User: What shape does this take?
Amino acid sequence: MSDSLNQKIKKRSIISGLVLGVVLLALSIASFYLIISATANVMMVIFSPILFSVLLPVVVVLLFCFDLRKRIGGYWTFRQAVSGIFIMFLVSYMIQVLGRDMLFARLIEPDMMSKTQAAMVRATTELAKRTGANQAAVAQKQAEIQKQFEDQKNITMGGILQGYIFTIMFLFIFALAFAALFRRNPPEYMTPVNPDE
Assistant: This one.
């Protein structure tokens, strides 16, 4: 394939990554507000992170991968698919880190962690009471949640950097998996498509 197609893939991947990052950032913020406002609905507190952090993002990513392949002409090799999808994922992740962790959590909702913790403790307590757990079991669950949040508050710069590195490694693994799904080699009898024409 030509260098112009590779450049087109990189350019489209960056643009798609920016848009995907904004969409996933909006889902993340919506999930936060849903969790802290769902005081009466325990299931909402428990399942909204799964919905907004796993299910909807997977659907959105699938749509963006289809769109990216279509915009570059409909065909790309496995290597080009890995490269394009990984760039899209990486740009999207950077948007989320900047938007959620740097801006939203520091400027708009500086008490984001404590509000989330309070909602999780409230939901866990309510669920434990509904299932008939005794007071000692409820207190133990609350202590576990508080410890998890305390560990997140006390994370070092090295731990944060390590988290970023692991996430980038997982993004590459996900890019490999999605590339295997979305790879579409051009037919051998077909001349290479130039998406600029």
Summary: The CA atoms of residues 97 and 103 lie 9 Å apart. Residues 3-37 form the longest helix (35 residues). The helical segments are 3-37, 42-71, 78-108, 112-130, 135-153, 157-182.
